[in-house]
């Protein structure tokens, strides 16, 4: 399942790395693309949308 999420708090590559690490903790095999310029995160994962959004929120980057 591929999710495309907007993460307004993502401002730089360090933010993107934090997001990637938080999502890899939920699904180590996930394919994650982050773009701080557009504030978009694309996640291809077996984890549920709820689990992904909770991981983002816990890392300080709630998705919309």
Please tell me about this protein's structure.
The chain has helices at residues 13-26, 49-58; strands spanning 2-6, 31-35, 40-44. The protein is α+β, with helices and mostly antiparallel strands and 64 residues long. The chain has one domain (2-58): Alpha-Beta Plaits, CATH 3.30.70.100. The chain has a three-stranded antiparallel sheet, covered by helices on one side. The radius of gyration is 10 Å and the shape is globular. The model has no long low-confidence stretch (mean pLDDT 96).
In short, what is this structure?
With 64 residues, the protein is of the alpha+beta class. The chain has helices at 13-26, 49-58, and strands at residues 2-6, 31-35, 40-44. It contains 2 helices and 3 strands.
List strands and helices in order, with pairings.
Layout: E1 2-6, H1 13-26, E2 31-35, E3 40-44, H2 49-58
Antiparallel strand pairs: 1-3, 2-3
Helix pairs in contact: 1-2
Q: What would CATH call the class?
A: Alpha Beta
Q: Give Rg in angstroms.
A: 10 Å
What is the ordering of alpha helices and beta strands?
Answer: EHEEH
Architecture, according to CATH? 2-Layer Sandwich
Strand order of the largest sheet: 1-3-2
- List unreliable stretches of 5+ residues: none
Which structural class do you get from the secondary structure elements?
Answer: alpha+beta
Number of beta-strand segments? 3
């Amino acid at each position: 399942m591929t999710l495309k999420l907007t993460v307004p708090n993502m401002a730089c590559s360090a933010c993107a790395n934090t997001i990637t690490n938080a999502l890899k903790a939920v699904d180590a095999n996930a394919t994650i693309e982050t773009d701080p310029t557009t504030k978009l995160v694309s996640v291809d994962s077996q984890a549920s949308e709820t689990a992904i959004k909770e991981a983002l929120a816990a890392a300080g980057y709630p998705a919309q």
